[in-house]
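debug: dumping io for the single-chain case to check the tokenizer round-trip. Nothing else runs in this session.
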Amino acid sequence: MKRIVLDTNVVVSGLLWGGRPRELLALGRTRSIQLFTSQALLSELGITLLRSKFGPKLEGVGQTPDSLVAGYALLAEMVDCTPLPQRVAPDPDDDWVIATALAAKADLIVTGDKPLLGVRNVGEIRIVSVTEALALLAAD
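debug: decoded output
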């Protein structure tokens, strides 16, 4: 079973809009893949969902930022991670995604963030788009 860390942008998209990111969440719910997160990523998810641009969408789905974060925390297995010894990603916030993946011994990091996609891999961990992840999972 693939061990996967979803970047916050993928989680938000899957929770609020559906589409291909929601397919990854559904695979996590059916335990076809194993999703991992950390306190740092859950905090980022909560802060992101508080942005005013998400307010109407949250109302539309009858959710609050706290309820979505709590639901995702139940779906993904929590790992303890520590800051990376040196910066890896172009955006320092993305280093928490990488740190989470390292702590989880993940196979994949799935993101829509182009600078993070540019890193391509960290050790054995591949950094891929949602489409690439679904294609890899379908091939397994």
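debug: round-trip ok. The beta strands are 3-6, 34-37, 77-78, 108-110, 121-122, 125-128.
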